């Protein structure tokens, strides 16, 4: 059923049958969507229980608003749950392949939501896990080459999602409570999510030290600003960064939960660059050196050889595993340190249930 204002999707599957048949005939099925019994055939068959709608751009002759091809909110949510419980948790496949598949299918989920103009509460429930995924992926694939993982594109979609989410939160604040309860019917009357403090804190850490992000944080309601330990900690870290108190930043960051840490460490290259520049001026000396092991601790380096690589990048002298800071040597034209994952791949794999699967339990 459609009106001039809204469209209600009628597709009850994760992927419309029409698309399933088309991709099966054209040989466009992803390995995650193939019927296992036919995977050795020249033209594998689709498994309807595993096929997930692809993202597609609007094109001439293509009707994007066909209700039969659009999934209603509860199907979109079940699709996200499927991706997080059945795909992301795979251990026998390169995570780049997993990321590419999930990234595309989550983009399709967002597209269906936009076309239907789904309600505020439903949109919030969809965006929150998607934001977690992009933050986690940014850290999991941090050191991959651009041919495998484009960090800028991932970050672009992350920021689009989280900014949209904050707008929805603000919109929800202005709604009548009764209205919010009514619109939850699409989710079998599930209670509204209680993850806002987490998302507000993630936004602060993704924009650590940014004045506008701090201004928003300080204008939040008392429940979120003063009574939420997560938001309070994020604000303290951001203020310390803004005031260039990087020793305090280091101390506070160690109190972050894994997901919050992933958000902060997306700024690790900037953090290291800024601290090294300040130290090049503050510890300027032609003879005395700064202990490399102390610097390794302060800037979250996993290996002292990484310090040597950054010293070379910025023009600083690295000698006997110590650093000779000289203000005039520092290359101000270099804006970022070398990339490095804070967590190891093994640790990140073990964090999947804690970071990504919590959102599927309700």
Descriptive notes:
With 362 residues, this protein is an all-alpha fold. Helices cover 54% and strands 2% of the residues. The protein has 16 helices and 3 strands. It has helices spanning 17-26, 73-87, 95-116, 120-140, 151-173, 177-182, 196-206, 211-218, 222-225, 229-242, 246-253, 258-264, 268-282, 292-298, 304-314, 345-356, and strands at residues 290-291, 317-319, 322-324. It has a 3-stranded antiparallel sheet with strand order 1-3-2. A hairpin with a 2-residue loop joins β2 (317-319) and β3 (322-324). α4 runs antiparallel to α5 (151-173). The longest helix has 23 residues, at 151-173. It is globular. The two termini are 29 Å apart.
SSE blueprint and pairings:
Elements: H1 17-26, H2 73-87, H3 95-116, H4 120-140, H5 151-173, H6 177-182, H7 196-206, H8 211-218, H9 222-225, H10 229-242, H11 246-253, H12 258-264, H13 268-282, E1 290-291, H14 292-298, H15 304-314, E2 317-319, E3 322-324, H16 345-356
Antiparallel strand pairs: 1-3, 2-3
Helix pairs in contact: 2-3, 2-4, 3-4, 4-5, 4-16, 5-7, 7-10, 7-12, 8-10, 10-11
């Amino acid at each position: 059923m459609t009106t001039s204002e809204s469209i209600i999707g009628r597709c009850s599957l994760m992927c419309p049958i029409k698309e399933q048949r088309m991709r099966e005939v054209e040989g466009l099925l992803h390995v995650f969507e193939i019927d296992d019994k036919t995977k050795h055939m020249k033209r594998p068959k689709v498994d309807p229980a595993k096929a997930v709608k692809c993202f597609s751009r609007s094109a001439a002759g293509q009707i994007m608003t066909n209700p039969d091809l659009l999934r209603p909110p509860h199907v979109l949510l079940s699709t996200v749950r499927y991706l997080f419980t059945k795909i992301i948790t795979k251990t026998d496949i390169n995570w780049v392949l997993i990321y590419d598949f999930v990234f595309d299918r989550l983009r399709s989920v967002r597209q269906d939501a936009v076309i239907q103009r789904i309600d505020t509460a439903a949109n919030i429930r969809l965006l929150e896990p998607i934001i977690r995924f992009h933050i986690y992926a940014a850290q999991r694939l941090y050191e991959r080459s651009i041919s495998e993982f484009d960090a800028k594109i991932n970050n672009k979609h992350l920021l689009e999602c989280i900014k949209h989410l904050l707008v929805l939160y603000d919109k929800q604040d202005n709604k009548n409570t009764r209205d919010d309860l009514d619109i939850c019917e699409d989710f079998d009357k599930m209670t509204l999510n209680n993850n806002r403090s987490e998302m507000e804190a993630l936004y602060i850490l993704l924009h650590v030290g940014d004045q506008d992000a701090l201004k928003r944080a300080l204008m939040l309601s008392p429940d979120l600003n003063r009574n939420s330990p997560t938001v309070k900690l994020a604000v303290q870290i951001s203020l310390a960064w803004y005031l260039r108190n990087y020793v305090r930043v280091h101390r506070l960051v160690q109190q972050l939960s894994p997901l919050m840490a992933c958000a902060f460490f997306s700024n690790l290259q900037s953090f290291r660059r800024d601290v090294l520049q300040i130290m090049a001026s503050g510890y300027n000396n032609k003879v005395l050196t700064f202990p490399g092991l102390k610097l390794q601790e302060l800037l979250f380096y996993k290996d002292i050889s990484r310090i040597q690589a950054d010293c070379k990048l910025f023009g600083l002298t690295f000698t006997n595993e110590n650093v000779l800071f000289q203000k005039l040597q520092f290359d101000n034209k270099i804006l970022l340190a070398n990339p490095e994952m804070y967590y190891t791949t093994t640790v990140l794999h073990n964090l999947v249930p804690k970071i990504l699967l919590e959102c599927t339990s309700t």
